[in-house]
Amino acid sequence: MQLTRPTTAPESDSARRKSLLRSRALWAAVLGWLAANALVVAVAGDRLPFTWASSTGQKTADHLLEANVGLVEVLLLIALVGLLTRRRPRPDLAARTPERAQALRETLLLLAYGAAGLAFGYVLARSLGWHPFGFHLAGTLYGTHEHVTPTEAVTWALYNVIVYALVPLLYFRRRYTAEQLCLRSADRRADTVLVAVVLVVESVVQFLVLEPETLELGGRRLLVGLPLTFTLYLAGAVLPAMIFIYAILLPRVLKLTGSTAATVVAGGLAYAAFHLWDAWTRFGSLEDTLLSGAFLLLTYFAPGMMKAVLTLRTGNAWVHVWAYHALAPHTLADTPHVVHIFRV
C-alpha cells in the first residue's frame, strides 16, 4: 500500500483549541464522566460492592475522589505531552491506513475479534476455576482476597499475548509496514526525551500517591520480582493493548472519524472495555452491573486516553509502552503482587 503524505498541514494552536472545543466527542466524554459520577452517587451506598483488598474500609466518596484526581493527573500529563511535542510535526496516522471502506471493514473485524477474545477468555478461565481473562491479571491495581496461582498468571499472560498481540500482528503485518502500524519511530531522540520525562513524572506520582510497597521487598525479592513482573505484564497487558488498540485500531478510528478528539475518546473507551473481566467487577444484579460499568470507566478511561495521545502525537505506539504502562505503573506497583503469587 502506498503511503500518503506523512504529516498533516500546519495548524495554529488557536485553531486546534477552537476545533477541540467544538468537538462533540469531547463534550460527550465530559457528560459521560459526569454521568458516571452521578450514577455512583445515586446507586451506591456508603460502601461499594467490590472486594478491593487494597482499599478496605474506604467509603464511596473516597473512591470517587481518587478517580477524579486521577483524571486531573492524566489531563496534566496530556498538557505536558503537548508542551514537549509542540515543535514536532504531527504525524498523519489516518494516511497510514487503507481507504475508508477497507478501514471500516478492518475496524469491524477487530472489534468482533476482540469481543470473541474476551468471551472465550471468560469461558476458558472459568472452566479452569480461575478469574476471567481480561487485560489485567486478577489482583492488579485493587488487589484480591483470593490467591492467584502461578499457573493462572502464566496462562493469562500467554493467552493475552497470543490472542491480542501475536495473531493480530501476524495478520496485519502481512498487509502493512511497521511504519503504517505505528511500530517505528520517526524521531528516536524526541521519543526518548518524551518517554523519560513522562516516566519520571508518572513514577513520582505513583510513589507519592499510591505509596507502592515494591521498595520494601528487600534485595532478593526485588532482584527476582522486578524482571518477573515486567515480563509477565509486558506479555499479558502491555503488548496486547499496544498492538490491538493503539497500533492497529486507533489509526483506523482516526480515518473513520476524521477527529483527533474522537479518536482519543475511542482509545479510552476501548482500553476500559478490555478490562471488563477485572476480578473485582460484579454482574449479579442491575445495581452491581451499573456500578461495575461506572468504575471501569472511572478507572481506565483516562489512562486509555493518555496512551492514545502519546501514540497520536508521536506516531509511535512504543512510546506509551515505556512512558506510561510497562514500567510505571505495572512494574512499579504490581511487583509485590507477583512476588506473592510466585512465593518469591
Quick rundown:
With 344 residues, the chain is mainly α. It contains eleven helices and no strands.
Describe this entry's structure for a reader.
With 344 residues, the chain is mainly α. The chain has one domain. Helices cover 68% and strands 0% of the residues. It is built from eleven helices and no strands. Helix 8 crosses helix 9. The longest helix is centred in the last third of the chain and has 39 residues. The N terminus is likely disordered. Keywords: Membrane, Transmembrane, Transmembrane helix.
Rounded average pLDDT: 93
Q: Roughly how much helix do the residues carry, as a percent range?
A: 55-70%
Beta-strand residue percentage: under 5%
Taken from the alpha-carbon principal axes, the silhouette is globular
Provide the descriptors you would attach to this structure in a database record.
344 residues, 11 helices, 68% helix, membrane
Topology, please?
Blueprint: H1 13-21, H2 24-43, H3 60-84, H4 100-127, H5 150-173, H6 188-210, H7 219-257, H8 260-273, H9 286-314, H10 318-324, H11 326-341
